[in-house]
Specification:
Residues 10-57 form the Terminase ATPase subunit N-terminal domain. By secondary structure, the protein is an all-alpha fold. The protein has three domains: 1-45, Arc Repressor Mutant, subunit A (Orthogonal Bundle), CATH 1.10.10; 58-104; 108-156. Helix content is 82%, strand content 0%. The protein contains eight helices and no strands. It has helices at 4-19, 24-31, 35-45, 47-54, 58-78, 82-104, 108-126, 134-155. Helix 1 (4-19) runs antiparallel to helix 2 and helix 7 (108-126) runs antiparallel to helix 8. It is elongated.
């Protein structure tokens, strides 16, 4: 049976693999835990949301919103009604505000992208820099996760 510290190292290793896009079954094999354990870690840690956020760029998000606006306008043109117009106006205001926020400030997606690049750089650096240890990377990733969680709470 693994100690609490060993289990935490395994969980962190699994999280890094998950964020890099590895399938959960492969992660379980590499880390040496069951697939159910990896699934529990993914669900409990909110890893899927973090990975999803890391995989979409700001321009992609803006394009998806613009496509939604286009569909909304097409629907209004094809079947105009006072109810649809009022609902569409509300949605358009929300879409516009979202696009404006994306253009004005750094999003959680941007933060995650930077953290992922930094983590990859640290892993590379660990191969020749004795000051970069797995424990240091684990500590940094822990604070990355805390920061992202706090930013997500502020956003929504």
């Amino acid at each position: 049976m693994a100690t609490k510290k060993e289990l935490e190292k395994m969980r962190e290793h699994a999280r890094l693999l998950f964020m890099q896009g590895e399938p959960q079954k492969v992660i379980a094999e590499k880390v040496g835990v069951s697939a159910q354990t990896v699934t529990k870690w993914v669900n409990d840690g909110g890893w899927q949301a973090a990975r999803s956020a890391a995989n979409i760029t700001r321009p992609e998000l803006v394009n998806k919103i613009l496509k939604s606006i286009d569909v909304l306008v097409e629907d209004l043109v094809n079947e105009p009604s006072p109810e649809k117009t009022a609902a569409a106006a509300d949605k358009l205001v929300k879409f516009s505000a979202t696009i404006e926020r994306l253009d004005k400030k750094t999003s959680v997606v941007d933060i995650i992208e930077v953290f992922m690049a930094f983590s990859k750089w640290l892993q590379y650096r660990m191969s020749f820099d004795p000051n970069v240890t797995p424990e240091l990377i684990q500590t940094i990733n822990h604070y990355h996760d805390l920061f992202i969680s706090e930013q997500l709470q502020k956003t929504f």
